[in-house]
Amino acid sequence: MDVYLPIANLSVDAFVIILLGGLVGILSGMFGVGGGFMTTPLLIFYGIPPTVAAASASTQVTGASVSGVFAHMKRGGVDFQMGGVLVIGGLFGTVIGAGLFSLLQELGQIDTVINILYVLMLGGVGGFMAWESWQSVTAVRNGRPAGAKKRRHHPLVANLPYRWRFYRSGLYISPLAPLILGFLTGILTMLLGVGGGFIMVPAMLYLLGMGAQVVVGTSLFQILFVTISSTMMHSLTTKSVDIVLAVLMLFGSVTGAQIGARIAQRMRPEYLRALLAGIVLLVAIRMALGLGWQPDEIYTVQPL
Amino acid sequence: MIGRLFFLICFLMATFAPLAVLAQSTDPKLVPDVSQRKISIESSFTGANLLLFGAIIYPRGVAPEGEIDVAVVLRGPSQAITLREKQRILGIWVNADSHEFLSVPGYYAVASSRPLKKIVKPRTADIYELGVDRLQLSPSGSFESKNKRRFEAGLVDLNKRGGLFRQYNNRVEITDSVLYRARLYVPSSVPVGRYTAETLLIRNGQVIMADDSVEIEVRKAGFERLVTVLADRYSLIYGILAVIISVLFGWIAALIFQRV
C-alpha cells in the first residue's frame, strides 16, 4: 500500500515502513533500548532524506518510550531527581544540537558527521558491551555466577564539586556529572535522531555508578523528554518532522516491542546482552565500511 | 478516453480551420492541450500520467510538403540549489567541492517525434533548451569550464536517475501531420508549483512555431496540504501536535497490550 509522505515529499510502501518499525520495536522490546540507532540508518537506506529520517525517528522514539516510562514508574524504577537533572542538560543539548545541525548543513558536512558519530559511538559502546558480556558469558559457562559488580563512580565524577544526594540512585555526587551527560546525549539526539539509551545506560552504570534498578527507567524518562524537545527543535528549525512517517513507524514498533519483550523473557540476560552487542557492532562496521566505499551518489542537491 | 479526445480535437479542427483560413497567416498555428490542468498530491499519490496533445493548424488547411516534427516539454518550477560533490579524502568520502546553480527546473521532461539530435541543430536545441543536456542551469560564480561540465553532468545524471529529468525519443505520435499526442510520466517525488507545457513545431532543423500557453498546477491536497502548511507556517503548533500524537499513540498502545 503506497502512502505519500507530505514532508519527505515522496511516496513509500507503508508495509515496508511498518515492518522496519516492527524490527526496531522487537529490538527495543528485547533490550530495553529505544532503537533509534537502527531507525535512522534503516530509513536513510530506504531512501528517506537523512534530515527527515533523523527528525522523524526522534518523534517515533518519543512514542516508543512512553509505555516503558509508565511501566518503570509503577515499579518505582525512575529517579525523578536524577532524571530531572539529565533532562535539563538534555534540553540545553538539543538547543546547541540544533545550532550545530544548521551549521553543519550549511557547510555540507552533516551526512559525514552523522556517519562518523555513528561509527564512533556504536563501535565504542558495542565493543565495550561485547567485552563485558564475553566476560559474564564465560563466567556463567565456568559455573561461576557473574559476580556482583563493584558499584563505584568514575574518579572524574567523584572529583566534581557541589555534591547532592540522589536517594533513589543511591548516590552522593555532583549534579554537574548527570547535567553534562544529559547535555551530550541531547546533542546526539538532535543530530542522530537516537534516544541515546545505548550511551546513557552504560554511562549511568559505569560512569555515575547508579543503582541498576533505576537505570533503565531513568534513562527512558530522560529519553522521553529529550526526544520531545528534539521533535520541537526540528519542527522549528529544519521543519523535517514527517508525522505520517513517524506514525507508520510507531504502528510497527509498539507491536514489535511486545514481541521483543516476550522473546527477552525466554533468554538469559548474559546472552541477550551479547546479542545486542553483536547487533550494535554490526551496524557500526557496516557504517564504517560505508564511509570508505564509493557512495551511490557522488552529488547531492541542497536548495538555496 | 483517447477516442473522445480525438473526437474533440477533430471538432476543434473543424471549428478553427476556417478561421485560420480567414486570417491568411503564413505560419501554422498550434492548439495544444493537456489531459489534466491540475495534479493533486494526496495520500495515495504515486505519480501521474499526463497526456499532452493538440492540433497543428496550417494556413489554408493544407499541410505543406516535407516532414514535420513535434517536441513537447513539460517543466516544473525552477529553484536555486547548491550542488555538492563528494571526493575521497583520507580514505572516506566527504563533500569536498560545491557550486551553485541558480535555475534548476524541479522537473523537466521532453518528448519528441524523432530523436532530438536528428531533428534540431545543437544551437537550436540550446536556445529552446531541448534535451536534458541542453538545460540552462545558470551556474553562478567562477567556474573552470572542465569543472562546470562535470558538475552539470553530475546534476543531470542525478535527476535523470531520480526520475525528475526525462527524455523520451519517439514518444510524440503525429497523425496525418495534424494531430499530435505524447504521454509523460510525473513521479511522486516532484516538487509542487506551476508547471508549463511547451509544444514546438520543428521542420528542417528549425523551430517554426512554439507555444507555451498550457499551464498545469501541481499541488498537495487535503490532509497532505494541511500537514505541509502546518509544518511550514505554524511550526510551533505542528511540533506540539507531533509530540501529542506520538505520546498518545505510545500510551494507547501500552493500554491495549496490557489488556491482551
Question: What's the gist of this structure?
Answer:
The complex is a heterodimer of chains A (304) and B (260). Chain A is mainly alpha-helical and 304 residues long. Chain A has helices at 14-31, 36-46, 50-74, 80-107, 110-141, 155-158, 176-192, 197-208, 212-236, 243-265, 269-292, and strands spanning 2-5, 10-13, 164-166, 171-173, 299-303.
Strands of the widest sheet of chain A, in order across it, are: 1-2
Count the DSSP helices of chain B: 6
Distance N terminus to C terminus of chain A? Answer: 34 Å
Q: Main sheet of chain B, how many strands, which sense, barrel? A: 6 strands, mixed
Tell me the domain tally of chain B: 2
Low-pLDDT segments, ≥5 res of chain B: 20-24
Total strands of chain A: the figure is 5
Uncertain residue segments of chain A: none
Oligomeric state, counting identical vs distinct chains = heterodimer
Output mean pLDDT of chain A.
83
Order of helices and strands of chain A: EEHHHHHHEEHHHHHE
Strand content of chain A: 5-15%
Percentage of residues assigned to helices of chain B: 25-40%
What value does the Rg of chain A take, in angstroms?
19 Å
Category from helices, strands and their pairing of chain B: alpha+beta
Task: Outline the secondary-structure elements.
The complex is a heterodimer of chains A (304) and B (260).
Chain A (H helix, E strand, L loop, with lengths): L1 E4 L4 E4 H18 L4 H11 L3 H25 L5 H28 L2 H32 L13 H4 L5 E3 L4 E3 L2 H17 L4 H12 L3 H25 L6 H23 L3 H24 L6 E5 L1
Antiparallel strand pairs in A: 1-2, 3-4
Chain B lengths: L1 H22 L5 E6 L3 E4 L5 E11 L11 E7 L2 E12 L2 E14 L2 E5 L3 H4 L2 H7 L10 E2 L4 H17 L3 E4 L4 E3 L3 E9 L5 E11 L2 E15 L1 H12 L1 H25 L1
Parallel strand pairs in B: 2-13, 7-9
Antiparallel strand pairs in B: 1-3, 3-11, 4-7, 4-12, 5-6, 6-8, 10-11, 12-13
Helix pairs in contact in B: 5-6
